Amino acid sequence: MLTVERLHLQIGSFRLSDVSLAVDEGEYFVLIGPTGSGKSLLARSITGLIPVESGRVAIGGRDVTGCEPRERGIGYLPQQGDLFPHLDVAGNITFAQRVRGMSRGKALSAVEPLVAMLGLGALMSRHVDTLSGGERQKAALARALAAEPRLLVLDEPLSALDEPARREIAGELRDVQRTLGIATVHICHGTEEAESLGDRVGVMHAGRLVQAATLEELRRRPVDETVARMVGRRGL
User: Fold this and answer.
1) From CA 211, how far away is CA 231, in angstroms rounded?
2) How many domains does the chain have?
3) Which of 22, 61, 116, 224 has its CA at a distance of 20 to 30 angstroms from the CA of residue 235?
4) Quick one: which of 203, 196, 195 has its CA closest to 225?
5) CATH code of the domain containing 212
6) Are residues 98 and 64 both part of a single domain?
7) Alpha helices in 66-162 (DSSP H)
């Protein structure tokens, strides 16, 4: 579904070096690593928000390396959600449909199953400034999914939330992802979210993807001490 091949990218003094990654159809892939390891930079290069120096990004077998973000078929959810402040919740969620020329009524009908799935019906007329952190992220997730993307990229979607909201949104993420069967790349710092969400986990360090496997495999057979420290080694 997602294929990243030998990606290189430099921003200032920091460099992503020879990153290769494959995410299967319907897989929930969690990418972990310390601050400054290059996780978000990799996510933004996959979405096309930052151009790469060399390498290849393909989605569903289609090379999108040179494509604009809107042409890639990716739903992107940044850390703060970045809802449009001049629109209410309904306007945010139906944005993709409205840009395509759909009437408001038809757009609302099109997103109704998604709104019901995420329990957002009572919030549709609310202004985004009146939402809690968890409500904002659910609305932003709905907006990302309403465009019917082939791939979902979530860049630390839970990090700005308090613990109850983190648990709630994590559950929503996994339920929606399983229901829709959409390939997902989820960026976070540690293993807590990887434990509850990930089918496989990748470990980033110093601009490189060090290892990718199931969390259990990473704990049993880490390739180096960096991976062992990140995931908590459980023996040989």
Assistant:
1) 11
2) 2
3) 22
4) 203
5) 3.40.50.300
6) no
7) 89-93, 95-99, 104-117, 133-146
Distance CA 108, CA 63 (A): 32
What letter represents residue 39's amino acid? K
Residue type (1 letter), 107: A
- 198 within 8 A of 215, measured Cβ to Cβ: yes
- Rounded to whole angstroms, the Cα distance separating 105 from 88 reads 15
Give the neighbor-by-neighbor strand order of the sheet with 28-32.
74-77, 151-155, 183-187, 28-32, 200-205, 208-213
Instruction: Give residue 84's domain range.
Output: 80-148
What are the φ and ψ backbone dihedral angles of 143, each rounded to 5 degrees? -60, -40
Do 168 and 53 fall into the same domain?
yes
Q: Do residues 189 and 214 both lie within one domain?
A: yes
Q: At what angle do helices 133-146 and 163-180 cross, to 10 degrees?
A: 20
Predicted confidence at residue 233, as pLDDT, reads 60
- As given in the structure block, the two tokens for residue 76 are 């992107």
Residue 37 sits in the same domain as residue 87: no
